[in-house]
Amino acid sequence: MYYSVDDVVSNAFTKRMILDSFFAFNCSGTMKVSTWVYDKGEWYYVSSSGSMIANDWVKDNGK
């Protein structure tokens, strides 16, 4: 999945609010999924749907 703002794909990691959820995109505009992202001094997990998980516990590799 690709995403751009004003028809320009960002050259840096960015997050966008879409339908009340934050989604993370890499520098090529591809949505990040099932991974950790670091934003403003905090780590967030990005779910398989692409939404960023906040204020919740996430099991990573069964831990």
From TrEMBL:
The keyword Repeat applies. It holds the Pfam family Choline_bind_1. PROSITE patterns: CW. It comes from the Bacteria. Keywords: Repeat. This is Cell wall-binding protein. It comes from Streptococcus pneumoniae. The lineage of its organism: Bacteria, Bacillati, Bacillota, Bacilli, Lactobacillales.
